[in-house]
Known about the structure:
By secondary structure, the chain is α/β, with parallel strands linked by helices. Helix content is 42%, strand content 16%.
Amino acid sequence: MDFIPKTITSKPEVLLVYTQRMVRGRTFEMIENLGILTLAAQLNANGFDAKAYTGITTDAVKTIEKMKDRLFAVCFYCDFDNRSAVAAIISYLKKHYDFYVVLGGPQTLHMSEKDLDTYQADGILKGEGEETLLTWLNAKITGEALRVPGEIRKSQNADYVYLEDFSKYEWPRNEDLLNYQERPLLSVITARGCPYRCAFCFEGGNSKNLRMRTAEVVLDEIAARLKNSQRLRYLFFCDDTFTTNPARLQKILTGLRTLRKKYDFVWFCEGHPGFLVKHPKLIREMINSGMVRMQIGMESGVEDVLKAYGKQASSADIKKVVEICYAEGLPQLTGNYIIGGAFETAKTLAETTKTVLELLDLAPGMLDVSTTFIMPLPGTQIYNHPEKFGIVLEDRECLTNLEDFPVNHTRELSLPEVCMGRSRFITAVSNKMKEQFEKGLIPQERIRADFNLAFNYGIAAGYLKFIYAKDAIMVAYYKKLIEYKGLLKEWPELSEEERNAWIIHKIPDFSMLDLNTLSQTEVEILSYSGRFASSEMAEKLNLSAGDLKKLLVKMSEQHLILFSAFI
């Protein structure tokens, strides 16, 4: 420890890093890494000065180099996606700097003594690190030669450390993020482990038994973190077992309803379709408690494929959940489809595409469909026995992949055919969404809800990102409507008295309009907007009340005008 100055060990500064390869805009940058945030909170409660950092590889290295002279340790979160990046960064750091480097994260479950050479870290700690990281760092400060549970050493492999009661440790704090600036999203985890054993899922293939935090502890954490917030928040329940226990879920929903009386927030969770069809009334309670977006496992439109994955949910279950969510008014329901997965053929791709288009027809404006390729994650059935799923792994370790190109094909489909299958699937989904919008099949209240969630809570779903947002006039219309909540109204919202007395307001700038598409009277209405009520405008333009009403309805539908009681 001679290379660490004593001034640094008085309150050791530690940086916990989650980095991925250089592709901006990926999910990992948007969703807080609760693993490193929780560890930072634990270290800070025990005499350290710890910060958490998430970013692409080049930015991570630049950040570390700026802090190099005061750092005691850098701790890397390692998962299947970032293994090669982390190994390269650690190799570089150990050649140039003297601080300790520690490796942890879910990928360590599959590490052994040989990985000491691969990663060159000062320590590899396997498992949930609330206790082990603190113990390891303290031992380095005191110079004690201590064997830490879960630490891999030469000729001494280690077992992965699981914590039975992880609710007793410090709650994550967003303020522990390096260069923290408050954003809408606030991540929360309510459980670790998973009772399901889906063939493609790392958590299901590797985790210990499900360990759930009590509803009371979860709600206490949320209340404490909301208290420190200065803006509207979007709670993001990260665990995919949120809906597993009905009694606990009910308690959480009751608590969320109470908290929403004091704080303005909405929330997202993952739900299991097999569970939700058995408890359909819970969907309404979840929406009443502030849920605006939910994800369910969809994976495939082929029944035999779902069974092969071990989904414990059928196509009928998925369809039923979609129908219930749409009827209950859930703004957004998202689901992912695996392209080139188990037993994929041209026929199964066609069947899955047909199924998705039918679901979109059932719920125009609600479904947010995404796609992925199979990632053969260590410990999963597909990684261990791909042949049982008709899969041929070309790159088992995914070293050639940034999740944008498949590393496997199937017995009947080549790699290029899998890629083309995904392209055709996305095109079919996109065309269906555009068709629904162009034909006016998406209710206006759903469009408005999507804009409200985007502008107020930072939640942008597929319809908004790929369709609504391309219409600059529509964006300006809803931005103004939401910004002046209650002071501006749409035509259908107005009472008969308000339709005569309220002032007409032009929303888009003239520079945004193609005046050739407007009549002379419509141009005059826009020119006089902000000065006259409807009855006055009719007199000004020498129009009958009926003729003006027709024009105002048309212009409202074109997102050109809104109405206010004030000039």
